[in-house]
């Protein structure tokens, strides 16, 4: 039995969990999320882009032939339903779909000529939804802005812009709505600045978190804890006060290897991560990790304590 973690967070690695059909192969596995029934969805750059598994890793279905380059991936419960929000970096759009892949809403380049033109592209990397339905989009690979929309796609406001001062951003790779406190807060994975920035729902700067992380990518909340992939080779878990609980699968040599993230197959180990890009947690506390590797890697960690 191969384990990771320590203290109150110990997991068993489920070897060979994702049973991908022989007729399919992974591209870069960028996103992963889980629905209320325990089914797991993986968003990757191969075709079809969305692959659905049951909790045991058995293949169920797939869809998403039209996405040019899969990236951020977010499953949101709305009333009695559940929906996926996906970002397409090459297509320059965010798409809301049903769990079966039917398109509900598409948001493209914001009509902001002072920010976007023929040379300055909109390249969204992540999306989140607030309890009131507002949609937050991170333009991580474009111009380093956060854009806020209403539930039906109406533009509300933007904040950010490239820089290192508080409130400015350098590759805001991930965005999420934190509901652990009394009021919602917007967490931004300011990856290029190796930090997290926290804002009010209307974009007001609140604080910076810059300890015990290295290139945070995105966020997933489980109870009072927040899990996030550090692209530099580990999953990080914070408590409700954003203090470190533990790192999972840390490998501080992986990202220093020549050719990273696409290393020789012999380098990878089941209990160590190389380039984690997406993470989610199911109702039993099991953790799923998707890694930014050209032929993909998805790992399930079974919670033992």
UniProtKB/TrEMBL annotation:
NHL repeats lie at residues 124-152, 160-202, 273-304. Keywords: Glycoprotein, Repeat, Signal. InterPro entries: 6-blade_b-propeller_TolB-like (IPR011042), NHL_repeat (IPR001258). Coiled coil: none annotated. The keyword Ribosomal protein does not apply. This is 6-bladed beta-propeller.
């Amino acid at each position: 039995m191969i384990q990771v973690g320590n203290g109150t967070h110990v997991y068993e690695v489920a070897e060979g969990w994702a049973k991908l059909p022989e007729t399919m192969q992974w591209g870069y596995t960028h996103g992963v999320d889980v629905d209320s029934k325990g089914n797991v969805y993986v968003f990757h750059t191969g075709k079809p882009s969305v692959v659905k598994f049951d909790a045991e890793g058995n293949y169920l279905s797939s869809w998403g032939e039209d996405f040019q380059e899969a990236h951020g991936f977010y499953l949101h419960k709305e009333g009695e339903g559940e929906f996926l929000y996906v970002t397409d970096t090459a297509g320059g759009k965010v798409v809301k779909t049903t769990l079966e892949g039917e398109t509900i809403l598409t948001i493209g380049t914001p009509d902001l000529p002072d920010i976007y033109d023929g040379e300055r592209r909109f390249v969204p990397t992540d999306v989140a939804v607030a309890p009131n339905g507002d949609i937050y989009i991170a333009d991580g690979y474009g111009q380093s802005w956060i854009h806020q929309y209403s539930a039906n796609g109406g533009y509300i406001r933007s904040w950010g812009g490239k820089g290192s001062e508080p409130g400015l951003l350098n590759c805001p790779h991930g965005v999420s709505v934190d509901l652990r406190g009394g009021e919602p807060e917007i967490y931004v994975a300011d990856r290029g600045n190796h930090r997290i920035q926290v804002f009010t729902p209307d974009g007001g700067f609140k604080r910076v978190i810059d300890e015990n992380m290295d290139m945070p990518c995105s966020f997933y909340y489980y109870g009072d804890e927040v899990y996030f992939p550090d692209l530099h080779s580990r999953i990080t878990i914070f408590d409700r006060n954003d203090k470190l609980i533990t790192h999972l699968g840390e490998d501080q040599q992986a990202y220093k290897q020549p050719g990273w993230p696409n290393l020789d197959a012999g380098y990878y180990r089941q209990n160590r991560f190389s380039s984690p890009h997406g993470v989610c947690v199911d109702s039993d506390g099991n953790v799923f990790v998707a890694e930014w590797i050209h032929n993909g890697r998805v790992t399930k960690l079974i919670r033992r304590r």
